[in-house]
């Protein structure tokens, strides 16, 4: 069996009409990239097929000679409860549909239903089965304790629970031949996760990373598939494609959300068929690399907008992790600060500087749109200009710049004051605002002033004035 079949388990189509079996297979392949299909015309053979093959999902007709669909449904529910069944029947009768669902069918479609709805139902069932399998794998890991290979994640510094859950998930799916999709904002560490997955996959070959953003379709094909000498004007030498470079290893395609539609079709074909043609060649080569893809885009949204092919999206998200941004795991900031201070100082041949106590606190007030990459760059800059024992806060204050420019969260009505019966006076509002900033900054005036968008001396003056008025 080819490792590129999708899904990883067989889908068994049972119907006594060969023409229907052919047309359903074609529909599933064309609209959803489903290739792991078995067909069966004789209902007496179903039991043996389920026992001998890795059947996850059955699409079952009801009216057949020999064993009826309802009898098969009962047998499957009793003897193979792990197998999911969707009934696709010529009968548009509510009572039959209800009876089938009671017997354990996952869904019921009439043969005349639109193709899209039927394919959608099949994809839902596949997703459910994939989640069940992942769940099973994950819970057995939880039961056996923590990570089996924590060393694979040594380069990813984190104390965040969601990140640790991602590590467990990655361990669970690392050996799967199906693609892994890693999403998350720019700079959150997607490439580091891809490298950890590669380490865990046990693949002997290298990890080859390709950034596909901005590649036009021809360059994309040339980069991935390579070309023969003379394939096009200027092709003076034969060139191996990145797929070949990554043989027995991992091909990491970064910025996959920026891929053009023609290139999406090429990638889908590669995943479906497990074969590709170098430009200028009519001899196919086999895909021998595991594929990991990453993007900072919301692929589901792109798919909904028609900018990303649905079949490719479903195929890619078989295994999916969403890496949280740094602002949602602020507990990582002091760890990353310490880690990068040591690393950068070492690379610059300097002694590791001591950060001021309030630095981590200052950094926690910032939203880090560039995530860990931005924090790393700030630390690099600060350590480069550093001379004395204690690290200066200046670089960080400059890097963070003006207070967060993201809009202030407002009440549902649109203005935090709109729900108040009596508006505070100007000085009352200022006092409350300053007091909140001081609390959030844990008493640190430099940080509080930054939160308020004023200078530290200006804040100090206000506080002094307020004290004098109290006295
Ligand atoms: N948790 C972490 N621990 C240590 N270093 C990290 C961590 N997360 C990210 N980095 C570092 O931050 C930088 C950005 O990480 P990476 O390239 O993996 O991000 P990315 O999500 O792939 O970004 P992009 O979407 O822009 O490609 C790298 O230098 C990486 O080593």
TrEMBL record:
Pfam families: AAA_lid_14, HTH_8, Response_reg, Sigma54_activat. Signal peptide: none annotated. Residues 10-126 form the Response regulatory domain. GO terms for molecular function: ATP binding; sequence-specific DNA binding. SMART domains: AAA (SM00382), REC (SM00448). InterPro entries: AAA+_ATPase, AAA_lid_NorR, CheY-like_superfamily, HTH_Fis, P-loop_NTPase, Sig_transdc_resp-reg_receiver, Sigma_54_int, Sigma_54_int_dom_ATP-bd_1. Residues 156-384 form the Sigma-54 factor interaction domain. Keywords: ATP-binding, Nucleotide-binding, Phosphoprotein, Transcription, Transcription regulation. It comes from Oryzomonas rubra. GO terms for biological process: phosphorelay signal transduction system; regulation of DNA-templated transcription. The modification 4-aspartylphosphate is found at residue 61. This is Sigma-54-dependent Fis family transcriptional regulator. CDD domains: AAA.
